Amino acid sequence: MADDGMLVNFDIGPDAFVGAHSAPSFKGGKWTDRQKAKRLAQYHIRKGNTAAAAPKKGDDGTGEFNVARPQSQKKDNSNSNNSNPNHVPFDRSLKRKRPSESSAAPKPNGTGVPPPGTKPGEFVSSLWTQNPASITIESAPEPEPEAQAPTNAPLSDGSTTFTTLGLSPILANHLTTKLTLKAPTAIQKSAIPELIKTDSDAFIQAETGSGKTLTYLLPIVNRIMQLTKPRPSSDTPSGKKETMARHSGLYAIILAPTRELSRQIETVLSTLIHAKNGPHWIVPGSVIGGEKKKSEKARLRKGLNILVATPGRLLDHLENTESLDVSRVRWVVMDEGDRLMELGFEETIGSILAILEKKSKLPNGTPERGSGVPSGEEVLPKRRVTILCSATMKTNVQRLGDISLKDALYIKAEKSAEDEEADNAGKEAGEGKFTAPAQLKQSYAVVPAKQRLVALMAVLKRAFIRQTATPRVMVFFSCSDSVDFHFEVFSRQLSEEAAAAAAATNPTTAVDSSSDSESEAEDTTPEDGKTSKKKPQDKKKKKKPALNPATSPAPTLHPSCVLHKLHGSLPQPIRTAALHSFTTTPHPTILFCTDVAARGLDLPNIDLIIQHDPPFSPSDHLHRIGRTARAGRPGRAIIFLLPGPEEGYVESVLKKGVREGQLARANVDELFRKGFAEGKEKKREWEDRASEWQLNVERWIAEDARMKSVAARAWGSHIRAYATHVGIERAVFSVKGLHYGHLAKSFGLRDKPGDIKVPGGGGGGDGGGRSLAVAQKRGVEDSDEERDERPGNEAMRKMRKIAQGMLKKKGMADEFNIG
Ligand SMILES: Nc1ncnc2c1ncn2[C@@H]1O[C@H](COP(=O)(O)OP(=O)(O)OP(=O)(O)O)[C@@H](O)[C@H]1O
Fold first, then answer.
1. DSSP per position, 405-419
2. Which stretches does UniProt call biased (Basic residues) (predicted)?
3. Based on the domain organization, do 743 and 613 belong to the same domain?
4. pLDDT tens by residue, 709-750
5. 142 against 211, higher pLDDT
6. Complex confidence, ipTM
7. CA-based nearest residue to 403, from 459, 452, 354, 441
8. 538 in any annotated domain
9. What is the mean pLDDT of the chain?
10. Structural domains of the chain, count
11. What is the pLDDT of residues 587-614, one digit of tens each?
12. DSSP state, 23?
């Protein structure tokens, strides 16, 4: 892999080229490269060509020695008055210059022009040169994607109401008045009447953001709330007449793949139950891990009527908690079916269903007295109904359907002919039918590896310029280390902006931006997954020379932007707090996250989704972008692709399942111009501004050992995560095609941190550990504790411990830390 001027850090000792017939000694870098360089030097010494023995830029094709060797110095060497023809006087110019030693600005990458803002002696790879060209033709700037009629919005025909679907007036009234939902969505129209009327299993498939949660919850609540008759004493364990209450029975279990989604479902459920004159006696609850099992057991003992659970935790309680009585369960719902399967819950779900079957007291026909089914429950399904929900119809969902559904109804939203066509196109994407909501405007940008960080800054900045209300942006990364890195970079950016703004408003009492403790700026507190404002009493103003806003990083995001992060390696309380803050803050806000936030989360009013790293499957893509454009609202999504094979993703996935005009290629020049230009600039001054911003980040990282390790770790994890693209996608996302040096720049590193062991990849990959990588990748939703909680995960737990130990010994990241 060419290195394009990215230094490999050969430390050429002062006596490297001194002494006849002795090969120079090389330190650092790869052993093979050192040997190669040594052999070459020996060859030249044998030939008496000592000048050539001295490594210089581009020597031996590795390009590792990026030593700017001014002509004048070469001349001096040749004019040396030392009579020994083999003597090469030590010349420090041969050594990689230190900033203090150099007087002339460097000439990066043969362009002759150092990036603007480069300090004398700084060796910096330019953002704008040596980038691979796009392999697809960039046509004239494409128009922005067209606005299309929403496909997941509430129906506007006027004839369909919640009451006409068969829901009770109490619920219907609550939905329209309290929850301000004007009308049902298309999937609600199709599914709710069926689920109220029949006792059939059902597979519900509908676009992201189309209201699937209410689609299955409303019929369940509607039917349970009809159980209003007090139970006669003959039917109660106590032998006394009882009104319906939490201990009357567990009627429904809802399974969801993540804790966040489970909590969300429980919240929606609570809002329904608390309808005016509603079924307040119904008690919902959850068992999702992340808290002591003891408290969950206590809750189960008290009694719940509807239980939301993650599969592993539920199975655990089914096997170990005696007070959990599932004999009357009428509904089992599996939300986000495809994700449940991707996370390897097939076996767990199979065991859950088997236990439910075994413990069920439901007769196969009409409930009769003495059968264990209390009278008055005739309004409930006569058999256990299983409902499977998914936005996609992948093979694994079909498999889950096979093991869990019997004679199921396949329910989907009625669609126009055009939308049906788009759905069928989605099928070709190799993952079963899927389409994104039509009103979601999608674009892709072909961004070279070196420019990825500045491109993110440009897109974020633009997002805040365009919006009038409170913009909410989600940025998806492939791994948690990358989330952590970008969170640090942009937190610092916001701190600096706030400090510069403070300085501008009150230049005499400028705030020291270098000291977190004394800053009144937005302060990064990664512990709670978000930036936070210091309280006024924390303020300690220092008299400092005024900061000059002009010298602060040129682009600004937004003065009051709040940054959040979310990934599976964060403790649960932090995950919950970050999500809560992200969804409730009145300020413009950004969430840096992994795929842990991709599924099912209903985060209100997301304006823009940025896929900084490509998704790991077409359905991941669909779910990520599906966090915006929900329930008929508008939304935009952009994905960054590297020039080269990655551009193949446009045809193979992005163009599938989109309507005409819904996807456009973003003009990268325009993207940078809009992000970095100030006013109307005739020259490409925005390039200089972008370079300066990048340099500012690079310098900070170079000078801060902690940040350097955060960046290096993120770089390594990013590459390892990239290597987990599977099957058909590997042609498009081949780790062998990655330029590690260029990627290092996008993590603010001037040199690639070293070799990296990447399964199946270049750069010294040993081919080992792929299965672990894939397993860990596929466990993105869960933290380690969650994964370990799953029964049957002993093998995985052991494997992870062994791998962690090995990696620790090698001084590598303790795992790919994806999630
Ligand atoms: N009839 C309706 N009218 C307006 N908004 C609705 C309606 N039904 C549901 N919603 C809202 O739509 C949003 C998305 O709902 P929900 O989370 O159930 O979607 P989903 O189909 O499950 O999406 P995903 O596949 O991404 O999980 C929620 O904010 C919900 O309150």
1. -SS-EEEE----HHH
2. 36-47, 532-545
3. no
4. 999 999 999 999 999 887 667 789 988 889 999 999 999 998
5. 211
6. 0.99
7. 354
8. no
9. 74
10. 4
11. 899 999 999 899 889 998 999 999 999 9
12. P
Which residues form the pocket of ligand 1, taking CB atoms under 6 Å from any ligand atom? 154, 181, 184-185, 188, 206, 208-214, 391, 600, 602, 626, 630-631
Judgement on whether residues 716 and 747 belong to the same structural domain of the protein: yes
Nearest-atom number in ligand 1 for the CA of 213 is 18
Give the pLDDT confidence score for residue 468 in this predicted structure: 59
Closest C-alpha among 518, 562, 568 to residue 544: 518
Q: Which domain holds residue 81?
A: 1-126
Looking at the fold, whether 696 and 627 belong to one and the same domain comes out as: no
Reported as a single tens digit per residue, the pLDDT across 439-482 is 999 999 999 999 999 999 999 988 887 655 678 999 999 999 99
Residue 318 sits in the same domain as residue 380: yes
Q: Are residues 275 and 361 in the same domain?
A: yes
Q: Please tell me whether residues 40 and 121 are part of one structural domain.
A: yes
Which of 676, 710, 738 delimits the end of a domain? 676
Helix (H, G, I), strand (E, B) or coil at 205: strand
Whether 353 and 287 map to the same domain: the answer is yes
Kindly report the protein residue whose alpha carbon is nearest to atom 25 of ligand 1: 208
Residue 745 falls inside a structural domain: yes
Burial status of residue 331 (CB atoms within 10 A of its CB: 0-12, 13-18, 19 or more): buried
Give yes or no: residues 671 and 695 share one domain: no
Q: From CA 312, how far away is CA 349, in angstroms rounded?
A: 8
Q: What local confidence, expressed as pLDDT, does residue 245 receive?
A: 79
- What tokens appear for 190 in the block? 């199709």
Cα 226 to averaged position of ligand 1 atoms, centre (Å): 25
Domain-ending residue, one of 621, 645, 676: 676
Q: Point out the ligand 1 atom lying closest to the alpha carbon of residue 206.
A: 21
Please give the pLDDT value at position 282. 92
As given in the structure block, the two tokens for residue 64 are 């590792």
Instruction: Say how many Å lie between the CA of residue 350 and the centre of ligand 1.
Output: 28
